[in-house]
Amino acid sequence: MPPEPLERERRPECTPRPVHHLGGHELHNKCADKIPNNSFPGWAEVPRLPRGTW
Predict the structure, then answer these.
(1) How high is the mean pLDDT of the chain?
(2) How confident is the model at residue 35 (pLDDT cuts 50, 70, 90)?
(3) The whole model's pTM is what?
(4) Phi and psi of 45, rounded to 5°?
(5) Which residues, 6 or more positions from 33, have their beta carbon under 8 angstroms from its beta carbon?
(6) DSSP classification of residue 11
(7) SS3 assignment for 12-34
(8) Residue 48: left (phi > 0), alpha (psi -120 to 50), or beta?
(9) b/e code 6-21 from CB counts within 10 Å (16+ = b)
């Protein structure tokens, strides 16, 4: 059997997407935006989960 690839394609519903910060804690949002390798500074990141799974 061939070895499994090191990187697999993500299922579309698992791909992160940026959304506006939920708000409520400005200091937390500013701190989170400064985390190294943050893909979406100024935004929150959520997966595209199928309806009913959360």
Answers:
(1) 76
(2) confident
(3) 0.47
(4) -125, 125
(5) 41, 42
(6) P
(7) HHHCEEEECCCCCCHHHHHHHHC
(8) beta
(9) eeeeeeeeeeeeeeeb
